[in-house]
Amino acid sequence: MRSDPKCQLYLITPPDFRRVTSSEFAYQLASVLDSGNIACVQLRLKDTPENISVAADQLIQIVQDRDVAFILNDNPVLATKLGCDGVHIGQNDASYQEARQLLGQERIVGVTCHNSIHLAMEAAEAGADYVAFGAFFESSTKPRQFEAETKLLDTWTLTTTVPSVAIGGITVENCLPIVEAGADFIAVSEGIWGHIDGPAKATQAFNDVLLGS
Question: pLDDT per residue over 37-78, tens digit each?
C-alpha cells in the first residue's frame, strides 16, 4: 500500500457539472476518487439551497464511502443539515464562530484567508481546522482577486502547525513549487476536471508529483 504524501489533493467540484446528468457526474466523481489519494471533496455551487441539497444528496455517499471528507462551500447551516463532514467559509460568509457553533467540534471548518498571514492567524487562533491561501495562479474557475506567493506558505509553515490549503489555478505542471513551499493540501478544480487526458488521469498525475516531492 502506498503511503499518504505530505501534501494531498483537495478536490473542488466544477461549477457547471450539472450540464451532464447527475448519474454521469456521480460515476465520474467515483472514478476520480478511485484513481488516487484525495483527502476531501468540496461541493462548490453558487445556487439555491434546494439545488445544492439535491447535488449533495447525489454525491455525499460516494465520497464518504471512500473515507474522503465531504465539505460544503459557504453555508454552515446547510452543511449541518446535510450531514457534511465540514464547511469552507470565505471572509464574506458566516463567521467562524457561527460555523463552529453549528457544526460542533468534531466536524471541519476551513477559512479563506486570501494572501494574508494576519487573517490566517486570526482563523487559527479561533480554532479553524485549516486556512486557505490564494490565488497562486490565474484560474478559469474564479476571478483572481488576491495574488498569493509561495513565500507565504514558507512563512506559515514556520509559524504554526495549522494545515494550509493552496488554491487558485493549480495544475499538474505548476504545483511542485507550492508543494515544496509547505502546503498541506492543494485545492484543484479545473486542473483535474479540465485536464486534456481526463480527470482520472489528472488525479494520477497529481499523485505522482505529490508522492515524489
Answer: 999 999 998 888 888 998 999 999 999 999 999 999 999 999
Cell, residue 33:
476518487
DSSP code of residue 149? -
Three-state SS letters, 183-201: CCEEEECHHHHCCCCCHHH
Residue 15 Cα distances to 19, 108, 116, 120, 200, angstroms: 10, 22, 26, 26, 18
123/153 Cα distance (integer angstroms): 16
Show Cβ contacts of residue 48 under 8 Å, excluding neighbours closer than 6 positions: none
Q: Is the pTM of this model over 0.70?
A: yes
What is the sign of the dihedral through the CA atoms of 142, 144, 146 and 152?
positive
